[in-house]
Design a protein that fits this description.
Distance between the termini: 53 Å
Oligomer: single chain
CATH architecture of the largest domain: Clam
CATH topology of the largest domain: outer membrane lipoprotein receptor (LolB), chain A
Structural class: alpha+beta
Strand content: 15-25%
Helix content: 25-40%
C-alpha cells in the first residue's frame, strides 16, 4: 500500500516509505529526505492538536528549545512544520524497539536492565530539563531501546496542557490529576513508575479510579527488590517536594543503589540484558495499544528537535551532525544576511570615507582595536553564555558543538557541551573542558584526556578555539579591512579581512589550519554584536565562497553570570 499523503498532505521535500505508528496524537511515517536521502520519522499531528492554537503556541516554544538539544538519550527534532493543510514534526529516525513492546513481550526486565533503562531515561530528561522542556506524559511507549541496550526518549511536550494525566494515567503524578502543570517533579514520578513496571511487569497502580490511587494508595515498594525500594519511595512520593529535587539528584541515588547492590559493573550488565530483551521483542508482533492511553502508543521513534516553524508549507533544511561536512555554506553576502536575521543582503559596500582621513585605519574606516577592547570588557563582565558552533567545508575538520561556557579572569574558558567531529569522533558526546583537559562522559563516569591530543580531544580544542570570543576580537585587531553595517535593534555587524601571514603569526591552530588547507591569501569574517558590545553571531571563512574553502560559524545567547564549570571526577 502506498502512503503518499497523510490526511491529504505531505511535508514538502519528503517521500513516505511506510507507516511506523498511529495513535490519538497523530500518525508517524518513515520518510526519505529528497535532498539528502536521509531517513527520518514524521509525525503528522491529529486534527485535534493541529487546530489547537493553545497547544501549538506552547509546542512552538518547546520545539525551539528541543532543536538546540543534542543528547544521545533524546531523539533529535529537526523541524516543526505548519501549513494550511496541517502540522507535522520531522525527527530523527532511530531504529530500535519501544520499551512498551519489550514489556508486553518479555514481562519484567530484571533489576539490572531496569536500572540501566532508568539511568538512560533520566539522562535524557536531565538534558531536556536543562533546555527548559519537561516531557509531561512519559510512558513506556516513549522509551526506545536500541541494539546496544541504550534507552532514548521521544514525544516531549506533545500532550496539551491539562491533559497529561489522561494521556498516561498509570504514570501520572498526583498533582497532574488536580490540574497542576507538568514539572520536573512529575517527570521524575513518571520515570519511577516506568522503572517500577520494568521491575514488576505492571505499573504501580491500576484500577478504575486512577486519580484516587495516585493520590492516596500506599507506594507499593514491597514488590520490588529490597535494595531498590528507597528509589521507588523517593520517586513515587505523593508530595512533589519529597521527590528528588532534580533528575541529577535522582541519578546520584540510582548510582549509589546500583553499585551497592550489584557492584561496579552493574551498568554494562544491565545494558547488555536490555539489548537482549529488545532483540527478542523485535522478533514478535507489535502488541495492541493500551486502551487507557491516549498517547501515540505504537510510535517507536523518539522525540523531536525542530527548527522554528515555517510558513506556507516552507521547510527549514537541516543536515545531521554525522554529515555536517556536506552542509552547503552560503556565500559571504548570504552569511552576512544570516547575521542580519533574515534581512536582504546589502550591496557590496564601497570603501567608507572618514571625515578626518587616518592612514593607520583599516580599509573600510573602522578601527578594530578599541572596538575589540570594548567587546573583551563586555564579555568579561558577562562571565559566560550559551553557544553553538559549526565548522564545515573542504579539507576535513568538520565539527559541531552546543553548550555553555564560563569565563575566569586570566584563564581559558571552561565548557560544558555536546560535540562531534569526524572519523572516530563522529558520534555526538557530552563533555566538559576545564583548563587543558577534556572530560568525556562514559556511562555514569567521566574519562579525562589532554586537550588537543587526538580524536575527541582534538575536536574539543578546535571547538574551544573556534568559538572563543577572544579569538574573534583578535581578528578585529589584526584586520586590514573592517567595515560597519547599519545598526538594527538586534545589533551591529562588522565585516573584515585578515592577511594569511597575520593568521599564521598570531592566531591559534584552527585558524592556521584553515589557511594552510585552503591555500587562502586571507581570512574573511563577520561578527554581530548587541547593544552591550557582546557577540551574538559570527562567521569566519578561508577561501573563495564558490571554491575550495573552510568556514566556521556560530552564535551566542544568554550572556550573563554562569556558575563555575568544574572538572568532573574522572575514573
Amino acid at each position: 500500500m502506498a502512503f503518499n499523503v497523510v490526511d491529504g498532505w505531505t511535508v514538502p521535500g519528503f517521500t513516505h516509505d511506510r507507516e511506523l505508528g498511529n495513535g490519538a496524537s497523530g500518525r508517524v511515517m518513515l520518510a526519505t529526505d529528497d535532498m539528502t536521502s536521509t531517513k527520518v520519522a514524521i509525525k503528522y499531528l491529529g486534527a485535534g492538536l493541529a487546530t489547537d492554537e493553545a497547544f501549538l503556541s506552547r509546542f512552538r516554544e518547546s520545539a525551539r528549545a528541543l532543536s538546540q538539544l543534542e543528547d544521545p538519550n533524546v531523539v533529535d527534532l529537526y523541524d516543526f512544520v505548519e501549513t494550511p493543510d496541517g502540522a507535522a514534526i520531522v525527527m530523527q529516525y532511530a531504529e530500535g524497539v519501544s520499551l512498551r513492546r519489550v514489556l508486553a513481550v518479555q514481562g519484567p526486565t530484571g533489576p539490572l536492565a531496569a536500572l540501566s533503562m532508568l539511568g538512560g531515561t533520566l539522562l535524557g530528561l536531565a538534558a531536556a530539563h536543562e533546555a527548559g522542556v519537561v516531557h509531561g506524559a512519559m510512558r513506556p511507549a516513549n522509551v526506545l531501546v536500541d541494539a546496544n541496550g541504550n534507552a532514548t526518549l521521544t514525544d516531549f511536550a506533545t500532550s496539551p496542557a491539562g491533559t497529561e494525566a489522561q494521556s498516561a494515567p498509570p504514570y501520572a503524578a498526583p498533582e497532574l490529576w488536580d490540574g497542576a502543570p507538568a514539572t520536573v517533579a512529575t517527570d521524575v514520578y513518571a520515570a519511577t513508575a516506568v522503572f517500577y513496571e520494568c521491575l514488576t511487569g505492571r505499573p504501580p497502580y491500576a484500577g478504575r479510579n486512577m486519580a484516587r490511587l495516585h493520590r492516596e494508595a500506599p507506594v507499593p515498594a514491597d514488590e520490588v527488590p529490597g535494595p531498590l525500594r528507597h528509589l521507588i519511595h523517593q520517586g513515587l512520593a505523593k508530595d512533589p517536594a519529597e521527590r528528588p529535587r532534580s533528575v541529577a539528584d535522582f541519578l546520584g541515588a540510582l548510582e549509589d543503589a546500583a553499585v551497592s547492590a550489584y557492584g561496579p559493573s552493574w551498568e554494562a550488565q544491565g545494558r547488555g540484558r536490555l539489548a537482549e530483551l529488545a532483540a527478542l521483542a523485535a522478533t514478535q508482533p507489535e502488541p495492541p495499544k493500551p486502551k487507557a492511553s491516549r498517547s501515540s502508543g505504537r510510535n517507536p521513534i523518539v522525540a523531536v528537535t525542530g527548527k522554528q516553524p515555517g510558513s506556507g508549507g516552507a521547510r527549514t533544511r537541516w543536515i545531521l551532525a554525522a554529515v555536517a561536512a556536506l552542509m552547503v555554506v552560503g556565500v559571504a553576502a548570504g552569511a552576512t544576511a544570516m547575521l542580519r536575521d533574515g534581512e536582504n543582503p546589502p550591496p557590496d559596500p564601497a570603501p567608507a570615507q572618514s571625515s578626518s582621513p587616518q592612514p593607520t585605519l583599516p580599509a573600510g574606516g573602522v578601527d578594530g582595536k578599541p572596538l575589540a577592547t570594548q567587546i573583551d570588557q563586555a564579555v568579561a563582565q558577562a562571565n559566560g553564555a550559551q553557544f553553538s558552533y559549526r565548522q564545515t567545508g573542504c579539507c576535513g575538520f568538520p565539527a559541531t558543538a552546543k553548550g555553555t561556557f564560563g569565563l575566569v579572569h586570566g584563564q581559558q574558558p571552561s565548557y560544558s557541551l555536546t560535540f562531534a567531529g569526524s572519523g572516530s569522533a563522529r558520534k555526538a558526546v557530552r563533555g566538559v573542558i576545564v583548563e587543558d583537559r577534556l572530560y568525556l562522559r562514559a556511562g555514569r563516569r567521566w574519562k579525562s584526556s589532554a586537550l588537543g591530543a587526538s580524536g575527541y580531544s582534538e575536536v574539543a580544542d578546535q571547538v574551544r578555539q573556534g568559538s572563543s570570543a577572544r579569538n574573534l576580537t583578535s581578528l578585529m585587531r589584526l584586520a586590514t579591512k573592517l567595515t560597519k553595517e547599519e545598526s538594527t535593534e538586534t545589533g551591529t555587524i562588522y565585516e573584515g579581512a585578515v592577511p594569511a601571514g597575520q593568521i599564521e603569526a598570531y592566531m591559534p591552530k584552527p585558524f592556521t589550519d584553515m589557511v594552510r588547507a585552503t591555500g587562502a591569501q586571507q581570512i574573511a569574517f563577520a561578527i554581530k554584536i548587541d547593544t552591550g558590545h557582546r557577540p551574538v553571531a559570527f562567521w569566519v571563512r578561508a577561501g573563495a565562497e564558490d571554491g575550495r574553502h573552510q568556514m566556521m560559524h556560530g552564535s551566542y545567547t544568554k550572556w550573563g553570570p554562569k556558575p563555575p564549570i568544574k572538572a568532573p571526577r574522572a575514573a
